[in-house]
């Protein structure tokens, strides 16, 4: 599996948490776009939240609600449970721009 | 270093460090933590300073750590001192007596700064609280070691697990603080004690502090390591995120216990 497919699968797992009713409830009226830019790839990935579902796909938009800048290794590490998202944030290995509340909601899916 | 969040002044041989963000009840930002450490270094090297008072500007001593964090500005490669090991070691290793003058509310990290000082006096208007559990995290600054040692294991667990506020009088009754003074004469009383210390045999006082604290050091360092590890687990938990979201959305949190 290539790095793109690995990342799409990892972020797809985060998105699939919205199948759980307790998460779905928390994402009611959460219509936002989150973009991941990776320092080590030539592509970006979008997570589009709409109507309590989330679509993950390759692409970029001009003004995402949340912009994450990191490396593929960090995202895959978080996904495997080997990297702490908070530690990655605090150490500057994962930078996030956007509304704090939106970022926290998305962080909820990272577990 | 010129300070933005603290004041540092001298009253004869006594240095007074004032936490100075009264508009945010002296909430401790990253900048404030750095400035306190810098000021402690200055006081350590200043031979004229022989006793130190730490207090708060306005109504509060400190409402605790400031949760207004901007993750977009985190510096890559910078060491993360989540349990505030750097500050704790400076407070316990500085060979001059440090008095916490708790003039008002002392919550979370605010209470823990006081806990790491040598003597703690409180105004009768002061209130204390470990508070961390209200944000679904655990206490830092070696308080998981110090608090049970000071007030007993069961009382410490009650204070940490429930996180409720308690009065200065109760703090005195459980042995957490040295004394309570009426608010209108509070600083006068604390300064009186600080000047008595500063005019005393401070070399011997410094040696006594070192003798007492050196026996605690291994445990303090171990507690700081444990706290840092547990804090990251707590920061990554759904309950912590829910606590912040519920605070922002002005509603009661719905914790899942994970």
Summarize, please.
The complex is a heterodimer of chains A (111) and B (258). Chain A is of the alpha+beta class. Chain A contains 5 helices and 5 strands, in the order ααββββααβα.
Describe the structure.
The complex is a heterodimer of chains A (111) and B (258). Chain A is an alpha+beta fold and 111 residues long. Chain A has a single domain (3-109), classed as SCP2 sterol-binding domain (Nonspecific Lipid-transfer Protein, Chain A), CATH 3.30.1050. Helices cover 41% and strands 26% of the residues of chain A. Chain A is built from five helices and five strands; from the N terminus they run H-H-E-E-E-E-H-H-E-H. Chain A has a five-stranded mixed sheet with strand order 3-2-1-4-5. In chain A, strand 2 (44-50) and strand 3 (53-58) form a beta hairpin. The longest helix of chain A is centred in the N-terminal third of the chain and has 14 residues, at 3-16. Chain A is globular, with a radius of gyration of 13 Å. The mean pLDDT of chain A is 92. Chain B is α/β, with parallel strands linked by helices and 258 residues long. Chain B has a domain at 6-185: 2-enoyl-CoA Hydratase, Chain A, domain 1. Chain B has nine helices and nine strands. Chain B has helices at residues 30-45, 85-93, 109-115, 143-151, 153-162, 168-173, 186-198, 202-235, 238-248, and strands at residues 6-11, 14-19, 51-56, 98-102, 106-107, 119-123, 127-129, 166-167, 179-181. Chain B has a six-stranded mixed sheet with strand order 1-2-3-4-6-9, sandwiched between helices. In chain B, strands 5-7-8 form a three-stranded mixed sheet. Chain B is globular, with a radius of gyration of 18 Å. The termini of chain B are far apart. In chain B, 45% of the residues are buried. The model of chain B has no long low-confidence stretch (mean pLDDT 94). The interface between A and B is medium-sized, with 23 and 23 residues.
């Amino acid at each position: 599996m290539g790095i793109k497919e690995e990342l799409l699968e990892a972020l797809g797992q985060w998105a699939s948490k919205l199948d759980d009713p307790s998460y779905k409830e928390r994402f009611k009226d959460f219509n936002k776009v989150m973009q991941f830019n990776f320092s080590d790839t030539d592509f970006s990935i979008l997570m589009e939240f709409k109507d309590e579902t989330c679509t993950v796909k390759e692409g970029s938009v001009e003004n995402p609600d949340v912009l994450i800048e990191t490396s593929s290794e960090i995202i895959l590490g978080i996904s495997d449970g080997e990297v702490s998202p908070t530690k990655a944030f605090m150490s500057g290995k994962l930078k996030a721009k956007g509304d704090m509340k939106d970022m926290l909601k998305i962080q909820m899916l990272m577990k | 270093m010129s300070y933005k969040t603290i004041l540092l002044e001298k009253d004869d041989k006594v240095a007074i460090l004032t936490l100075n963000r009264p508009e945010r009840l002296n909430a401790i930002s990253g900048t404030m933590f750095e400035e306190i450490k810098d000021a402690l270094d200055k006081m350590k090297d200043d031979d004229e300073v022989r006793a130190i008072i730490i207090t708060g500007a306005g109504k509060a001593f400190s409402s605790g750590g400031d949760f207004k964090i901007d993750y977009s500005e985190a510096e890559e490669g910078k060491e993360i001192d989540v349990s505030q090991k750097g500050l704790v070691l400076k407070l316990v290793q500085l060979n001059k007596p440090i008095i916490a003058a708790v003039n008002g509310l002392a919550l979370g990290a605010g209470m823990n700064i006081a806990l790491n000082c040598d003597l703690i006096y409180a105004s009768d208007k002061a209130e204390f609280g470990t508070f961390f559990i209200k944000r679904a995290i655990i206490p830092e600054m070696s308080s998981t070691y110090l608090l049970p040692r000071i007030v007993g294991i069961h009382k410490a667990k009650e204070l940490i697990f429930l996180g409720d506020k308690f009065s200065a009088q109760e703090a005195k009754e459980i042995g957490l603080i040295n004394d309570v003074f009426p608010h209108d004469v509070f600083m006068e009383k604390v300064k009186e004690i600080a000047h008595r210390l500063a005019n005393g045999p401070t070399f011997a006082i410094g040696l006594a502090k070192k003798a007492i604290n050196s026996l605690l050091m291994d445990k303090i360092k171990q507690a700081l390591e444990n706290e840092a590890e547990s804090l990251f687990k707590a920061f990554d938990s759904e309950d912590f995120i829910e606590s912040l979201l519920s605070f922002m959305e002005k509603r009661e949190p719905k914790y899942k216990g994970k």
